[in-house]
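Fold it.
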Amino acid sequence: MQFPDPNAGLSGDGPPYNFAGIPYIDQPRGQYRRRGCQRYLGCLVPLLIIMLILAGVSFIGNITVSWGPTVIKVGAHPTLIVESQANEHTTIHIHVGDPGGQITLQSPHLFNLPFGFSDTYQKTGDAQTIIYDLPPTVSGIFDFTVPAQTDLKVDSNNASVLIEGVTGQMTVMTISGSLTVRHCNLIGPSLLRSNSGELKALEDHLSGSVALDNNSGSLTYQGSLDPAGSYHFTGNGQPITLTLPLNSAVHIDATTLNSGSITSNIPGVKAENASAGQALHADLGTAPRAQLSLYNNGGNITVNEQGGN
């Protein structure tokens, strides 16, 4: 008894045969098209199931499913309050972009879908204050577009916070997430505080009474100080780095404890040794001068002017 060779024809010397010795027949092109359709249907079925689940939950819980951002009408110079218990994979981004009269919120959706449950927020009767609690189970970027003049109150646990271009009073606190405020005008009373994440205020302007505090992370400030204001920067072991514009009018009182040092590139400004650290007292420019206090327990302080050596 002879058996056909199952490998016959595989090297190009003839058509391939199956085990029964019958040549394989090419499948019609239509069958390939049907397989393609099956693949597309395989992708659409889970999406349809998710849409049906969302629709059912929406119907039962009276919750709206929405596409795109949430637009909230507000009055002039509103206040945005953001509370967050989100994880370290979340970022709160607040920036200027709307012409005024509204706050726009774009929150991440489950599985990065283009739709999801509508954002739930609180709004005062005069439309001046908006309160939003980040859902703790959703990670990603929560993007707030606000009017140019907006007061902010942000309390974040592990999420990072990025604020850009906003003018107003700010109370912003993070536990382990980083905190960055860029191109902003902070009007006192304002407070930026981080427990352990990096704190950066870059190309900002401070006026009134403003405090920047970092318990166990670094603190960096680059910007200007209104001469009529008072400013307090404090750290606890990690460096404080301050860069001021040339010819700033400011009175500086800087102190370090537990071997922390103070350095400066400003001509004639030099720290002196103290009992457990260093101290620096200097008057820059002419009166009136901004009152600047810097304190670091166990860390270094650097006070520089832009363009200095």
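The chain has three domains: 23-63, 68-152, 178-309.
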